[in-house]
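Q: what sequence does this backbone want?
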């Protein structure tokens, strides 16, 4: 995802913005369902015919009623065909099956003090989303791969399929000897049936979890064993992955250990597996067994541009956030996703360093702003949806992560992480709602944070600030005016929130915290001399857009002295001075030698936008940059110069550079400068296999450019 700089102010009027956006308030209100019983345990037995893409199965259900007159049980069942229902003694029970339920008539009436068990036998012969039979291809073996999220366990297991009920589970799977079977929990044993040429894997999930976290993966996997002390950590991959998988997944135990210490809660499960699937894109959490797309295993070259490390950390974090404590209904999706998204930022801060982490959080913030400005705004806690997946968007992931960042700022690090640990311990193995977290915050901190949550979780939108300052030399007073203008949007509040203001002088920096409460806030500060820079939101704690007009001198100072988000903002703001020799020189210096790659990339992009014809030498130097994204930006800039004499250079870069992104930009540059004589070269490039079809897509774009130029 490429960083975009024009994010800080909406240059649209209210009516123009909303004319292009979804009216998500037309979606129906969807509430947590009632239930008659508490499911305790599912013992699932499956006999799977891989070639025939079908299974016969049974689920032995143990439950306890939640009322005193239970004589009928309804379970979710879609696509599968129930053939029999037996009580605990093997006697048949009558049942009816509709389109999405199986209704079982019990042999007598049960009370809330009872526990009962029955077995449902069934068949599945249709291809379903919840359990995919995937054919063998050049790149993947034949496999079965489950995808229970958010409510597709019911497609291959008759069950109560909603996250507010948690069960322990056994998965007993019989399959041909050629295949290995992975599921949740601990592998109890493997039983051989030599006569049939089959074996049976018995997995046991001994701690309760929700049905969307049930996992089943079957293939001729290579299993790479790893560990964190006594905790098994294994990687289930294709044979062709074996060389690269250990390196790609090497940090997994390290991540588990980091989150254990960060949360103050030891990893709660018996093992952790990562398993590759041909149908998965990024990652999908399941208790003790995360499903990953094939791209998670990268070659050394692929890892240059397509690191999965953030996704791996996100999915590891789900073992606590989503698996240990689980949203009780889909309106609370942030409890799973916001915490996991914020956790991968915290991991990056720990492992990648502050600059990379700050840039990562900025990208997360911008992802939310794109959705808010271009599609819709909704409260983070939101019960209007037609299907649960609609609540898993950039509000649930990056916006919620940034709200947690603000909460940490308000509470302070010590209190924030004590809240996190207390919440996990207090609600372990339970389904929770937002109010549970709010109560925990108050109990641990002693603070009534209801207004904070009301503003940021239960209302849509975000703050939009107009910041201005004035220095009065006669009184040595700096006046800072901060206007909140987001009230042009419906239901978006004027926020009450603290913010840090940084004042930079030659001898150092002074930070003052002020509290914003009104639409317009004015604050006065006394200094001996005018600050060289006044930094709004020092530390980048607020989720916001803003305008703040500064002089060229102050922006040049900020580029040199601020953190990465502040420097990138100042670099972009210098566009207002794009004809100034000072700004041109600053962009040039940054492109040539700044310490952080995203700053170099931004400078190259701005030189290309405003001074491309005079910056060729800078671009040529940047082609040798250590970071592939900077090299790609430089090649794109060179391609836009329309200099056919460079085509041989672009070909050489395509053939020699290790980065797929760089090679792709080189192909596009050939198309932008070439002619029909280069089509053969480009057609050959389109055949080269690359992650996400990067080279194929670039070659096809290049071919299109040449054909368009000849029309």
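A:
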């Amino acid at each position: 995802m490429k960083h975009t700089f024009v994010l800080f102010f909406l240059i649209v009027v209210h009516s123009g913005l909303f004319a292009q956006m979804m009216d998500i308030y037309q979606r129906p209100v969807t509430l947590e369902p009632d239930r008659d019983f508490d499911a305790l345990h599912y013992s699932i037995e499956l006999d799977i015919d891989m070639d025939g893409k079908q299974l016969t199965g049974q689920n032995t259900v143990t439950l306890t009623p939640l009322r005193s007159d239970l004589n009928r049980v309804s379970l979710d069942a879609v696509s599968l065909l129930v053939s029999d229902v037996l009580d605990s003694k093997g006697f048949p029970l009558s049942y009816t099956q509709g389109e999405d339920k199986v209704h079982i008539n019990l042999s007598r009436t049960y009370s809330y003090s009872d526990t009962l068990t029955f077995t449902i036998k069934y068949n599945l012969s249709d291809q379903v989303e919840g359990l995919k039979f995937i054919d063998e291809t050049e790149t993947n073996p034949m496999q079965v791969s489950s995808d229970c999220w958010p409510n597709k366990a019911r497609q291959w297991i008759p069950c109560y399929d909603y996250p507010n009920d948690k069960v322990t589970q056994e998965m007993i799977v019989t399959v041909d000897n050629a295949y290995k079977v992975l599921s949740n929990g601990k592998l109890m044993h493997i039983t051989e049936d030599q006569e049939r040429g089959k074996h049976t894997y018995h997995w046991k999930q001994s701690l309760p979890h929700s049905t969307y976290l049930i996992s089943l993966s079957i293939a001729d996997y290579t299993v790479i064993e790893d560990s964190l002390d006594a905790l098994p950590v294994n990687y289930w991959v294709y044979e062709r992955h074996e060389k690269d998988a250990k390196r790609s997944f090497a940090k997994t135990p390290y991540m588990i250990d980091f989150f254990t210490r960060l949360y103050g809660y030891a990893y709660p499960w018996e093992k952790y597996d990562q398993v590759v699937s041909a149908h998965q894109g990024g990652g999908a959490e399941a208790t003790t067994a995360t499903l990953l797309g094939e791209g998670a295993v990268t070659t050394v070259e692929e890892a240059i541009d397509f690191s999965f490390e953030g996704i791996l950390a996100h999915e590891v974090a789900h073992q606590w956030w989503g698996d240990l404590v689980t949203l009780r209904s889909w309106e609370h999706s942030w409890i799973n996703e916001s915490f996991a998204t914020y956790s991968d930022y915290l991991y990056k801060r720990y492992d990648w360093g502050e600059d990379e982490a700050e840039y990562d959080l900025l990208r997360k913030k911008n992802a939310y702003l794109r959705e808010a400005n271009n599609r819709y705004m909704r409260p983070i806690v939101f019960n209007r949806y037609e299907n649960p997946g609609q609540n898993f968007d950039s509000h649930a992931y990056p916006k919620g992560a940034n709200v947690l960042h603000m909460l940490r700022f308000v509470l302070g690090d010590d209190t924030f992480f004590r809240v996190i640990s207390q919440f996990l311990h207090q609600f372990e193995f339970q389904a929770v709602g937002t109010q549970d977290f709010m109560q925990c915050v108050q109990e641990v901190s002693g603070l009534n944070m209801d207004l904070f949550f009301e503003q940021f979780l239960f209302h849509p939108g975000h703050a939009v600030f107009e910041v201005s300052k004035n220095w009065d030399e006669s009184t040595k007073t700096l006046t800072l005016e901060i206007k909140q203008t987001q009230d042009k949007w419906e239901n978006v509040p004027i926020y009450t929130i603290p913010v840090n203001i940084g004042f930079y002088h030659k001898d150092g920096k002074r930070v003052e915290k002020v509290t914003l409460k009104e639409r317009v806030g004015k604050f006065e500060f006394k200094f001996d001399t005018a600050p060289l820079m006044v930094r709004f939101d020092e530390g980048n704690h607020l989720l916001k857009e803003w305008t703040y007009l500064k002089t060229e001198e102050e922006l040049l100072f900020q580029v040199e002295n601020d953190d990465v988000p502040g420097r990138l903002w100042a670099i972009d703001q210098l566009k207002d001075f794009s004809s100034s020799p000072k700004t041109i020189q600053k962009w040039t210096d940054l492109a040539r030698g700044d310490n952080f790659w995203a700053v170099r990339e931004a400078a190259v992009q701005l030189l290309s936008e405003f001074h491309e014809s005079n910056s060729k030498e800078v671009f040529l130097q940047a082609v040798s940059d250590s970071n592939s994204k900077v090299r790609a930006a430089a090649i794109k800039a060179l391609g836009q110069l329309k200099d056919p004499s460079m085509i041989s250079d672009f070909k050489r870069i395509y053939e020699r550079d290790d980065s797929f992104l760089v090679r792709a930009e080189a192909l596009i540059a050939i198309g932008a400068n070439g002619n029909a004589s280069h089509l053969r070269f480009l057609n050959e490039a389109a055949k080269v296999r690359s992650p996400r079809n990067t080279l194929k897509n670039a070659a096809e774009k290049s071919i299109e450019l040449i054909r368009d130029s000849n029309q």
